[in-house]
Amino acid sequence: MTVTSIPALSDIPFVGSSIPTRPAAQGAQAAGTPDFSSVLADMAKQTASTIRTSEDMAIKGMQGQVPVQEVVQAVIQAQTSLQTALAVRDKVVSTYQSLTQMQI
Questions:
Q1: 3-state secondary structure (DSSP) of residue 87
Q2: In whole angstroms, how far apart are CA 23 and each of 8, 32, 43, 51, 86?
Q3: What is the model's pTM?
Q4: What letters, b where the CB count within 10 A reaches 16 and e where it falls short, cover 57-69?
Q5: What CA–CA distance (Å, rounded) separates 80 from 69?
Q6: CA 58, 52, 85 angle in degrees (round to 5)?
Q7: Can you give the C-alpha Rg of the chain in angstroms?
Q8: Phi-psi bin for 32: left (phi > 0), alpha (psi -120 to 50), beta?
Q9: For 56-87, what is each residue's pLDDT tens digit?
């Protein structure tokens, strides 16, 4: 029986990946400054992809094509991705609400 290690934080999609940046010609931002909307869009795409992969692994596990350990790892990775995306969403909503309550 082989035991594989749990992936490091840098192996989780969108946590350890590089942040996409906006080209300098598109805005007045400094080169290398991340574009917030593209970061959120990328995170949403990667989270959806991770969840789809987890669902596929679960189906293959029920059919006996994949070992249970791989199914559990895929589900845990999907859970972590979803929890991270929800935490970011909650923080964005909270920040938006704070901004709308500010007096000008």
A1: helix
A2: 30, 8, 19, 30, 28
A3: 0.61
A4: bbeebeeeebeee
A5: 16
A6: 115
A7: 18
A8: left
A9: 999 999 999 999 999 999 999 999 999 999 99
